[in-house]
Specification:
Layout lengths: L22 H4 L23 E8 L9 E9 L9 E6 L7 H6 L7 H6 E6 L11 E3 H4 L10 H22 L8 H14 L5 E6 L2 H11 L4 E7 L8 H25 L10 H13 L4 E2 L7 E2 L2 H11 L5 H12 L22 H5 L14 E3 L2 H8 L6 H16 L7 H9 L21 E8 L5 H11 L3 E9 L8 H13 L8 E2 L24 H9 L6
Parallel strand pairs: 3-4, 3-6, 6-7, 7-11, 11-12, 12-13
Antiparallel strand pairs: 1-2, 2-4, 5-10, 8-9
Helix pairs in contact: 6-7, 8-14, 8-15, 9-11
GO molecular function: hydrolase activity
Pfam family, one: Abhydrolase_1
Keywords: Hydrolase, Signal
Length: 549
C-alpha cells in the first residue's frame, strides 16, 4: 500500500425530536488520572512496533467503577531528539481498528511526521482488540435490508433491530451500552495522559473526526492540534442526514459522468454514460438485468446493487472499474476478461451485503449458527445519532420527496439510508447531535474532498461554519474519501499544522490528482484491492459495495 492510501484502513455519512447538548460536553471532566501503558512486542511482526493496553472506565459517569482494557499500538518517533510527542490516530468506521492503522503508519504518514511523533493508534471501546461488540451470525444474516415498500416492511426492520440489539447486548455484556463516541473521547484523554502529553495531537479520518470534534469541545484547553480528514457532521436531523448524503452521492456520480465523457480510458467512451445508467436502472427495476454466468444461481441485479456500486466507486475513485463493470452488465459478451477468469466449479456464489456487514469474508460453515462475530457499527452509530422516523408515511415522504429531488440519478445516499434503517426503534441516544463548539481550543484543521460520497463536502462546509474562527477548511478539489497523502499539497498542509502548528490560509485549495492511469487496465486489474482474480471476485465486490469499508 502506498503512503497515503487510507481507504483500505477506513471502515468507509426528516423529522426529529428536539435534541439537547450532551451534558458531558457542557461540563468538561477534571484532570484525567494517569495510568501506565505496559508497552511490549506486538503479535504482528512490524518493525519497531510496540503494543500494550490501557485500563479505562467502562462507564465514565462512574470513573472508579468497572474498567476495561483498550488495545494500543505505537510506532516510536524516528528521530527521538526531535520528537514533539505522540500523534493519536483513528481511521473511522465506526468499527475501524486504530491498532491496525498504527501498524501501517510508515506507509501512510510522511517521513517528517514519522520522525517527529510517536504514532499511537487504539482500537476504540467495543472494536477490534478492545472488548469488541459481538453478535450472533445467524441473527446478522437475517437482516431484512434498508429499503421498505410498505409499512409492514418498515415495522419488520424495527422489530429486527430490537432483536439484534438484545442479541449483541447479551453477547457483549455491559460495555454494549457505553460505546458512544463521547465515551471514546474520554478514553482519548486517558491515552493522552498515559503517554505523557500535556496537550493532544490527533489525526482522525471519517468517523474518527467525530472523536476529534468532541474532544475539542470536552477538553478545549488540552488541544495542541487536531486534524479532521473527511468529516462527519454531528448537527443534522433525520431529513438533513438523508438529504445531504443523497446530494453528496449525486455529486460524485456527476463527477464520474464528467470524467467518463472526457476520458479515453472510460470503458463507456463514445456512449452517453448517464443514459446507459438510466437504462440499467430501468432494467434492474423490472427484474431484467441478469448475470447468468453464476452456476445454478443467476444473479438478478437490483437497483440497490447498482446504486451501491456507484457509491462505492467514489471512494478511490475507482472509476475505471466502475465504467468497465457497467459496460459488462450492459453487454456481458462484449467485455473480455483476462484468460482464466471465471467461476471455479466449487464456487457457491458471491457474498451479499449482509455477509460483508457481518465482518465475514467467507460464507459461514454448516453448523455455525451459534458463531459470534464482531459488529460494533450500529451500537456506536445509533448512540451518536438520533435518527427517528415516525412511521412509514414519514419514511416514504423522506425518500420520495426529499432525496429524489437532490439525487435524480442515484436516488439516495447509500450509507445514510442504511444508517437510518439500522437505527429504527433506537430511542435512548447517549450522545445525540449538537452543533460543534471548539471554543477555547486551538483551531482545528478540516480537510475534505470536493467530491466525497461518504462524508460529503457539504458536511465539511457545515462543520466549518459551526467552528467559525476555531477551524480552517482546506478543500481537495478531487474525488475520494480520505484526503491526506493524495497529493503533495494535501500532505504539506497537514504536516505543517501537525509539526509546526501552522494553519493554512482561509480558502486554501489543493488541486485534484489525475484519475486516469498511465496504462489502460483490464477490469480485474483495475480493482483497488488486488485479491480479485476471478469473475466471482468481481461480482462479490459489486454485490458487497453497499457495506461500509
Amino acid at each position: 500500500m502506498k503512503r497515503g492510501a487510507l481507504l483500505p484502513l477506513i471502515l468507509v455519512p426528516g423529522l426529529a425530536v428536539p435534541l439537547m447538548a450532551p451534558p458531558a460536553l457542557a461540563d468538561p471532566r477534571p484532570e484525567t488520572p494517569v495510568r501506565s501503558i505496559d508497552w511490549g512486542a506486538c503479535e504482528e511482526e512490524v518493525a519497531g512496533a510496540e503494543c500494550g493496553t490501557l485500563a479505562v472506565a467502562l462507564d465514565w459517569d462512574d470513573p472508579d467503577g468497572e474498567a476495561i482494557d483498550l488495545a494500543l499500538a505505537r510506532i516510536p518517533a524516528g528521530d527521538p531528539e526531535a520528537r514533539i510527542g505522540s500523534l493519536v490516530i483513528n481511521p473511522g468506521g465506526p468499527g475501524g481498528s486504530g491498532v491496525d492503522f498504527a501498524l501501517y503508519a510508515t506507509e501512510v504518514f510522511s517521513p517528517e511526521v514519522l520522525a517527529r511523533f510517536d504514532i499511537v493508534g487504539f482500537d476504540p471501546r467495543g472494536v477490534g482488540r478492545s472488548n469488541p461488540v459481538v453478535c450472533s451470525l445467524d441473527v446478522l444474516q437475517d437482516n431484512p435490508g434498508p429499503l421498505f415498500e410498505n409499512r409492514a416492511a418498515l415495522d419488520a426492520r424495527a422489530a429486527y433491530n430490537e432483536v439484534l440489539r438484545q442479541d449483541c447486548r447479551e453477547n457483549t455484556g455491559p460495555l454494549y451500552d457505553h460505546v458512544d463516541s463521547l465515551s471514546v473521547v474520554h478514553d482519548i484523554d486517558a491515552i493522552r495522559a498515559a503517554v505523557g502529553d500535556e496537550r493532544l495531537t490527533f489525526f482522525g479520518v471519517s468517523y474518527g473526526t467525530l472523536m476529534g470534534q468532541q474532544y475539542a469541545q470536552a477538553y478545549p484547553d488540552r488541544v495542541r492540534a487536531i486534524v479532521l480528514d473527511s468529516v462527519m457532521d454531528h448537527d443534522l436531523d433525520t431529513r438533513e442526514y438523508l438529504s445531504t448524503q443523497a446530494e453528496a452521492a449525486q455529486d460524485v456520480f456527476d463527477a464520474f459522468v464528467a470524467w467518463c465523457e472526457g476520458s479515453t480510458q472510460c470503458a463507456l467512451s463514445g456512449q452517453d454514460p448517464r443514459a446507459l445508467w438510466t437504462d440499467l436502472l430501468k432494467r434492474a427495476d423490472a427484474g431484467e438485468l441478469i448475470v447468468p454466468e453464476i452456476p445454478e444461481d443467476p444473479w438478478v441485479v437490483t437497483a440497490e446493487d447498482l446504486i451501491g456500486m456507484a457509491f462505492s466507486s467514489g471512494y478511490g475513485p475507482d472509476w475505471h472499474d466502475f465504467a468497465s463493470t457497467l459496460a459488462w452488465l450492459d453487454d456481458p459478451e462484449g467485455v473480455e476478461f483476462p484468460e482464466g477468469a471465471g467461476f471455479p466449479e466449487e464456487e457457491s456464489g458471491p457474498l451479499g451485503p449482509q455477509d460483508a456487514a457481518a465482518g465475514g469474508s467467507a460464507q459461514a460453515d454448516e453448523g455455525s449458527a451459534d458463531q459470534l462475530v464482531p459488529y460494533a457499527y450500529p451500537a456506536v452509530l445509533c448512540n451518536d445519532y438520533a435518527l427517528p422516523v415516525r412511521g412509514y408515511g414519514d419514511w416514504s415522504a423522506l425518500m420520495r420527496g426529499n432525496q429524489r429531488q437532490v439525487a435524480p440519478d442515484v436516488r439516495y445516499g447509500m450509507l445514510a439510508v442504511d444508517d437510518v434503517a439500522s437505527c429504527l426503534g433506537h430511542e435512548e441516544v447517549r450522545n445525540p447531535q449538537a452543533p460543534a463548539d471548539a471554543s477555547g481550543s486551538e483551531p482545528l484543521l478540516v480537510i475534505n474532498s470536493l467530491h466525497d460520497p461518504a462524508t460529503g463536502y457539504n458536511w465539511a462546509v457545515n462543520l466549518a461554519e459551526q467552528l467559525g474562527d476555531d477551524g480552517v477548511l482546506v478543500t481537495y478539489e478531487g474525488t475520494g474519501h480520505a484526503v491526506y497523502g493524495r497529493t503533495e499539497c494535501t500532505t504539506e498542509v497537514v504536516d505543517e499544522y501537525l509539526v509546526h502548528e501552522r494553519l493554512p490560509a482561509e480558502g486554501t485549495r489543493c488541486a485534484a490528482a489525475p484519475v486516469d492511469v498511465e496504462e489502460d487496465t483490464a477490469l480485474l486489474e483495475a480493482l483497488p484491492q488486488s485479491g480479485a482474480d476471478t469473475l466471482a471476485d468481481v461480482v462479490s465486490r459489486i454485490r458487497g459495495a453497499d457495506a461500509r469499508e
